[in-house]
C-alpha cells in the first residue's frame, strides 16, 4: 500500500512537472515534414521526428492527441513522441484548393479552413468528413487558434481575423500583423491556472516568433532565431483546446432601486463566488466583507460596486450596478380653479407606466370637473400612488389668458410668451418645462415673458408645458393652478 501511494505521488509530480514544462511550448510543423517543439521562454527548438508527409497544419485536441492535415489533403493522427502518423481519411477541398488551417475548440470540435476558399469547416476526427459552417470572407494563410474562447485566423497578407463560429459571415478583421515575414502559424501559449501568465497569442513566420495583440493585431518580436531548418507550415499547443482556470468573482448584476431605499446587501446579488475577495465602492474605496451599503442618500443615477477575487493574472471582478431612479413625480397640490379652466397633469417619464382612477393609462390627464383624481405609477424600481383634489369657483372680475403658441423669431409678432391678464395678483408664478420636465423659464412677474431661450441660447421648436400658480388680490385665500401646452414655432 505504501509503495502504491509513493508511486502515485511520483506520477502526480511528474504530471505537474510536464504540465509546467509544456506551459510555454508549442509544436510546429515544417515544410520538410519535421515536427518540432519550440520553447517560447528560451527561444529554442527541438526536433521530435518526421511525419509521413509534411503537415500543412496541426492541432491538439482536449485529450492531448495531435492531428494534422497533410500536403495530400488527408487527415492524420500524430504521435507526439516520435511524429509517427496514422491515416484517418481524406478531405475533399475544392479543385486547386488545400486545407491548411486546423484548431480544436475546448468542446473537442475540429475546425478547418483552406487557402483559396473562404469557408469555415467542421471536421469529424473519426472519418475526416467535412461539414461547411459558413463563409468567413477571408482566405486562410495557414492557421487557426482559440484565445479565451474566441476563434482567430491568420489570413493571407498577414491579416488577423476574428472568426464568428456561430455565424461565420459576421467575421471581422482585427488588423494587419506588422511582422517582418509572412505569417503562417498562430498559436495560443500559456497556462490554464494563470501562474505563468494568462494565455497569449503568438505568430510564427520565417525563424521569428511574435507576440500578437488580439485587440488590434499589433506584434512584438519575441524570438529572432528559432533555428528552424525549413519554412513553418503550422503550429499548435494543448492550451488552444483547454478552458483556462480563473478565479470566480460571480456574475455582473444590475439592480434598479428607488430613491429613499435604505440599504442593500451586496453579496447575494452576484451569486456563487469564491470567498476571500474584497469589495470596493464607486470610488474604489474599500468596503467591509459582506457589506450592507447605505443607499438612502443616493440621488438619481448609476452607482457601481466591485467584488474582486484572485491576484495578478488570475484576478476576476464582478460588478454590481445600482440604478437609482425617482419614483414619485412632481405632482400638483390640491387646488381650486376658475370655472371653465382645465388642469392638465403631465407626467412625462418614458420609463414609467400609469393607471388613473378611471382606468386610462396616458401620461397626460386633463381635469375639468371637481373631484379627487389619483394615479398608480409603476417603474422598474417599484410602485407609488399620487392624488390631487380639484375644486372650481366662479372667478369673476378679471381674466387670465394663456396663449397656446408663440414664434420667437424676432419678426415682431408673437415673439414672447407669458400670461395676459387684467387681474391684480397677491401671488404669481409662471413656470415652463421642456419634455424632460426641466424648467426652462420661471418668473414671478406678470410682465416678464419668455423669449424662447435658455442661457441666451435658443431652445428647439416643439411642445412645452406651462404651470401657472396665482392668487388674486381680491381673494388671496383661493390658490389657483393652471397647466397647459405651448407650441414653440421657429
UniProtKB/TrEMBL annotation:
<keyword id="KW-0732">Signal</keyword>
<feature type="signal peptide">
    <location>
        <begin position="1"/>
        <end position="23"/>
    </location>
</feature>
<dbReference type="InterPro" id="IPR054215">
    <property type="entry name" value="DUF6923"/>
</dbReference>
<feature type="domain" description="DUF6923">
    <location>
        <begin position="67"/>
        <end position="185"/>
    </location>
</feature>
<protein>
    <recommendedName>
        <fullName>DUF6923 domain-containing protein</fullName>
    </recommendedName>
</protein>
<dbReference type="Pfam" id="PF13585">
    <property type="entry name" value="CHU_C"/>
</dbReference>
<dbReference type="Pfam" id="PF21959">
    <property type="entry name" value="DUF6923"/>
</dbReference>
<dbReference type="InterPro" id="IPR026341">
    <property type="entry name" value="T9SS_type_B"/>
</dbReference>
